[in-house]
Write a structure and sequence with these properties.
2 copies of one chain form a homodimer. With 215 residues, chain A is α+β, with helices and mostly antiparallel strands. Helices cover 16% and strands 37% of the residues of chain A. Chains A and B meet through β2, β3, β6, β7 and α3 of A and β2, β3, β6, β7 and α3 of B.
């Protein structure tokens, strides 16, 4: 842990040896995410919804329609955002010591709206590049009406914590002789063969983001 | 939509044509999940944490240490659980019409504890089978102390909704002539080569769950 926790909320109580508060670790996990999960309260109830995300500088960005419940509510109160990459199944000799390898980040704070059209256009360009590197110059950029109808929200990464498990089996000494395969089954989000629209045969196919594995 | 929404909370307001309330669809999405995200309130703040999950019958199961904040808090109040499978990047001819294909479920309710040792042993056996089919007879089952130290929680699936996008590009007519590749980049969680512990060379290697793709 190269940096102390920013707040009591980002102190990891369960298995604190897995916690990381340094910016580089938090950023690296966010930069491999295409989707985050947002917890918020609305109408007397807690909610948890997935949405696409990307990072620029010290902010996590999301977007949504101007009239969506999610974006409206997120501007009004604090939320928690979770990002999780499942990296492997840890298969132990005892049922109890089975585990998962993962990299996760939780961010606390309140989103703010970015309403400047130029800033919005730049952020959406970065979003296209995050999803498909090199694509933004090839596609039609958002029109003024499309920009105006889309809300861009950003959340400062000041209060964030990462949690990582990235090692092997931790069986007890007395279980080591059990005759069963033990180790890690690594998992990764992987790009499968492209499904082109009709009439796209002559166009250069896109490459997936560098952080996505190839089939 | 073959079944109506169970409550106002599971009515999908944004893009309701993507909503599904039927049990088979909800179960199928949960059954391909290894991890869920849980939103809950604790200490005056909303939180969002990932944890491993599996389904048996009409319940979603999770587990945790007896003394963990998460399991303790979840027994005391309502939460929302989100499961999301990211299935593809929808690459349109216009930046605005880019999208993602996904299958997601949100469940509302309150977890209850299952404390009966036999029921716990059966549920943890099902968990091992979910993660690694055929493995439970090969590993040491949980001891009485291990069972006693682990909390098993379950959440009824009464108030759940699925949301699915699983189709191609939706560009506007006036963008169809833009000379750029358009279509879907499918994505899938995939099993990579196994990483055995030392000394496991003679044991039969495990197969990943059927819902995980092969590299």
């Amino acid at each position: 842990m190269s940096k102390p926790s920013a707040s009591p909320r980002t102190e990891v109580r369960r298995k604190p040896q897995r916690a990381h508060h340094d910016t580089a670790t938090v950023h690296a996990i966010i930069d491999q995410a295409l989707v985050c999960q947002i917890a918020f309260n609305q109408g007397g109830s807690v909610h948890c919804l997935p949405t696409a995300c990307w990072r620029e500088g010290e902010y996590l960005y999301i977007h949504g329609a101007n009239n969506s419940r999610l974006t409206q509510t997120l501007l009004e109160e604090e939320c928690a955002v979770s990002i999780t990459h499942l990296d492997g199944l840890v298969l132990a000799r005892s049922a109890f010591h089975h585990a998962m390898n993962y990299r996760s980040v939780v961010i606390y704070g309140r989103f703010t709206a970015e309403d400047d059209p130029d800033a919005k256009a730049a952020a959406f360009k970065a979003f296209v590049e995050h999803v498909s590197p090199g694509r933004s110059p090839l596609v039609r950029p958002p029109s003024r009406a499309e920009l105006a109808g889309t809300r861009l929200l950003r959340l400062a990464l000041d209060e964030a914590v990462a949690k990582i498990r990235n090692w092997g089996v931790e069986d007890s000494e007395e279980d080591m002789a059990i005759p069963v395969w033990a180790g890690v089954q690594p998992l990764a989000l992987t790009a499968k063969p492209l499904q082109p629209e009709a009439g796209c045969g002559e166009q250069m196919p896109p490459a997936p983001p560098a952080f996505i594995g190839r089939a």
